[in-house]
């Protein structure tokens, strides 16, 4: 199987492994700029549901996308009480990425590790799953515990229209 967007099958690349809804995902470290503890978010009225808010990153206003909401990943039901959501958001991590002309934060639950994988360790989605419109899934790898690990292409998580919408949102906030 050939990894989508892969240059060489045996080329080692580093991936940031993180969790969303308790499941592990990975993203090529080359798509990221930095990793931050969750900062105070400024909520933006009438913004898309997946926009968690804005942060001030060294004088730059940066929109933060709740990756779990954007990818429509449902939280597993637990017997624990869920009225701790506000405090859970404060414990989350923001991965800063550059998406064409937009700097954005992707909010995740936690960063687990940075792991080296080569192209042979990452497979394409099975053909049945490929029929689902999931352009942002670059492939499937495995964690140290042999759990499946979805490798995301962060540049494909947002459509061009959504990136333009976020850019306009950011511009409106900065110009006010």
TrEMBL record:
Q: Per the UniProt entry, what are the Gene Ontology biological process annotations, in alphabetical order?
A: chemotaxis; signal transduction
Q: Where is the CheW-like domain?
A: 12-163
An annotated GO cellular component of this protein is: cytosol
> Origin, by domain of life?
Bacteria
UniProt-recorded name of the protein: Purine-binding chemotaxis protein CheW
SMART domains linked to this entry: CheW
Q: Which Pfam families match?
A: CheW (PF01584)
């Amino acid at each position: 199987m050939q990894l989508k967007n892969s240059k060489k099958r045996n080329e080692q690349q580093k991936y940031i492994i993180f969790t969303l809804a308790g499941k592990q995902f990975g993203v090529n470290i080359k798509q990221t700029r930095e990793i931050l503890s969750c900062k105070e978010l400024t909520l933006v009225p009438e913004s898309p549901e997946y926009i968690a808010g804005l942060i001030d990153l060294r004088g730059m206003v940066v929109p933060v996308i709740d990756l779990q909401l954007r990818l429509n990943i449902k939280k597993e039901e637990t017997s624990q009480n869920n009225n701790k959501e506000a405090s859970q958001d404060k414990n989350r991590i923001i991965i800063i990425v550059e998406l064409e002309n937009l700097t954005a934060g992707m909010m995740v639950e936690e960063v687990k590790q940075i792991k080296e994988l080569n192209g042979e360790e990452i497979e394409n989605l099975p053909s049945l799953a490929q029929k689902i419109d999931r352009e942002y899934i670059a492939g499937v790898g495995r964690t140290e515990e042999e759990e499946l690990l979805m490798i995301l292409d962060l540049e494909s998580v947002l459509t061009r229209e959504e990136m333009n919408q976020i850019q306009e949102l950011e511009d409106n906030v900065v110009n006010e």
